[in-house]
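Example 4.3 (complexes with small molecules)
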Amino acid sequence: MKSILKIEDLHVSVGEKEILKGINLEVGEGEIHAIMGPNGTGKSTLAYAVMGRPGYKITRGRILFKGEDISNLPPFKRARLGIFLAFQYPEEIDGVSLENFLRTSYNSMNGSDVSIIQFRKILLEKMKVLEMDMPFLTRYVNVDFSGGEKKKSEVLQMAILKPSLSILDEPDSGLDIDALKTVADGIKEMKGPQMSVIIITHYQRILHYIEPDFVHVIIDGKILLSGKKELAKDLEEKGYEWVREFNGREGNGRFI
Ligand code: ADP
Ligand code: MG
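Answer. The structure with adenosine-5'-diphosphate bound is encoded below.
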């Protein structure tokens, strides 16, 4: 297995508060990992720390991407290396059309200057998979988008940028079942053998559509339990409290 992401004993603080308390995680090329856990346990913090969001301070440990220590790189450099984060709460960018936004990101990531016409061809092909129609392109990024539309535009961005590691923070939140299926199909379709994916989710329902190779449970800033896809089903039945009990106080990173 070729390692894409390796996180070693990662401790992260926001302000004075330690949120991540020693995360170890390795993601191989083409693998899908699900990160699950109760609300407020540090799932988004982990995503932000990998992306390098300001204010998320690494106090111990490090993050390796394709063997390179990226712990001190600014976010745009991490993006250029091939890391992409789809936000739990995508931000609105008033006055900038989705098409312009995507074309600008595409050009800046690839050092290219693709024409509007060329780019539209690329876009329309991907939009078909996500069941998005033309009027989307002229709307301002995420302004007055429904929950499902926001998630679709994040997946579209991922499809355009072709990162080697995509982190999707709760791509299922706020979606009805049809939108969920479309978003899941879109992620699967865009993935390809070279792209590794980390799906962060509180609920296992999206994992019915996208089968993860591995599932990890974060509780109180640590991965308490990891397993294969069957672990998601156990969690559905038994809940997160079971993980604490099963693992005991001392447990850390046990694999079942
Ligand atoms: P999750 O994504 O698992 O729901 P988060 O990573 O968002 O959890 O948050 C973990 C903990 O860190 C929570 O207690 C939250 O209140 C705190 N936290 C996260 N981001 C910030 C921030 N920017 N400022 C203060 N506290 C934060
Ligand atoms: Mg979160």
